[in-house]
Structure formats: C-alpha cells, structure tokens
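Notes from hallway chat w/ T.B., transcribed later so I don't forget. T.B. wanted the structure written out for a chain they're using in a teaching module, and asked if we could keep both sequence and structure tokens in one place. Agreed to drop them here.
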Amino acid sequence: MANSPKNGLLLVNLGTPDSPTRWDVYRYLREFLTDARVIDYPWLARQALVQGIIAPLRSGSSAKLYKQLWTPTGSPLKAYGIKVADGLKEILDDSWHVELAMRYQNPSISDAWKRLKKQNITHLYVLPLFPQYASATTGSVHDEVMRILRKEQSIPGVTFINSYCDYEPMIQIFADNARKFDIPSYDHILFSYHGLPQRQLKKADECNHCLKVKDCCLVKSEVNQFCYSAQCHATTKAIAKELDLKEGSYTTTFQSRLGPDKWAQPYTSVVLDHSAEAGAKKLLVFSPAFVADCLETLIEISVEYQEEFVEKGGERVDLVPSLNDDPRWISALKDLVLSYAK
C-alpha cells in the first residue's frame, strides 16, 4: 500500500529583529537591505551603502521605535505569525505540517525547511504572507526557498503561492474591521501600502506598460498582472466595493520610502499633509499590504502620521486593524492553501 502524502506548509513573513536592541536591529537591517531584490544596486555599491551607511546610522533610531512596538510576547509580527501557524495546525488534517519562517532573521526559512524535511513531506506549499506580489517581498521569499532546495538531492513537489490581492475572504475581514468605526464621520480614507521604488516597478514590466500609459496601475490586467502597484489598487477597489465607498472618498497611497529616488506615488505623507491643509480633521487608514500589525502600522501610521497630521491642523488618524490572528483569517488561509492542493 502506498504511503499517504504528507504536505508541508511554509508560511513566510518579512522578518523582525530578535530583540529591540541596537545590535539586533543592526543585524536585521543588514540582512534585509543587502538582499539584491530589496536594494537592487550592484553588489559592491549595495554593501557599501547598507553596511557602511544605512544599517549603522538607522539601527539606533530604529531600535527606539522597536522598543515602543515590543510587547511581552516580543515583536507583534512574529507573535501573530506564531498564532496563525498554530491555528492552521489545529484546523488542517494530520497530513499537513506547518512551519512559520521569516525571510530575514528568525525563525529562518532554512531552519523551518529542516523541520519540514524531517517529516518526510511529499509536497511543499510556500505561502508568503504578502497579499500583493513584489519582487522585493514574495519574489525574495521564492528566491530563498529555491536557493535552499537546490542544495538537496531529493526535492519534493513545490507549489509557490504568488499573490492573493483580491482574495474575497481577506477583503471581507478588512472591511469588517473597518465597520467597527463610524466610517461616514471621517473626512477621507487612505489605503496606505508599503512603498516600492519606481525603478523596481519598471523592472517587473514585461509589456512596456509601466509609467508609460496614463493611470497604468489603476486596473489590474494581463499586461500588469505582476505589478505591485496594480495589485495594491486591486485590493483597494475590492475593499471599497465591499464597503460601498464612493469614488473620491478614498485614496491609494504608499508609505515608508527610503532615499532620494522616486517611489510609487502618491506618498502617504504628502496626501496626509494635503488633507490637513484642505481642512480634514479625521482620517481612517487601512494598511492592507500587511496581514499583521507591525512597525509600519502601529508606529509609522498610528504614531508618526498621527503626530504629523496634528501638526498640520488635523485631529485624528485612526488605523483599521490588520488581520492578525483573527480566526476567520486563519480559516481563510486554510481554504486558500487547499485550493492549490486540489
């Protein structure tokens, strides 16, 4: 009798320092930013920039922010990831083995693979916890998994889950989280996504479309199916449709830009300032690039953007909570993975 198949599910999020100390933050930034898919400069220039300038200079200030973020269970990003992985272990059947990994720092993809390998899995499913595809996130996860697997003599079947930017159960949870607020009382709604340099958007363009066609990102189609910005707009439209938001009442924006190069626009900080200058007092902000609240949501939006908005004459910036460890999200992930396993 043939052995029953054993499936391995590898959940991967971006990463977090092991602690909010300056040294651990430095190690995290160094590993993260020297990834060629994140800062796509030539190797020598990238190393000099990151190890000589960015990591040493930013580690101190970033460590202070991580200290604000840190909880008794550690980094929220990792803590929520562990709860999601544990939840999936409970609701998937015994043929599934689930591991959580971080693309940068711990638990590493390499260590998670070693644990899955010991289970003699016959098929590996890789699920990056990024709803929208980008080379710097999902692409980097896939790249690292392939780097590890190509050293093996025996490689199981592998399925990479690419993106799920308009996955209906995910959209429903974001919308339900927003319904806990008095949506009509807000002057404007922002859908703020992590930024990406425009040069990386262009590099992902195989159809000579990016930034050459008016409003090239507003509709996701065959020609821009791998465009991060187009997928972000698709997420926004799906949530807005679910909430019956009117055109003009919301804007898709991009945060967390680094350096002097042009990034995906409009920038969240600029739209925030313009809203305050126009007399807006209350803003509601989604951050649907993140499936778990983290530094970019709990600190950058809830603290830094709140302070900036008040300085410009506004009053409140309210953050719609992310998916975190919501049982509906765990169930939605199960259904998503099983749809690939049919």
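Follow-up for T.B.: The domain at 168-319 is CATH 3.40.50.1400 (Rossmann fold). Might be a good example for the class.
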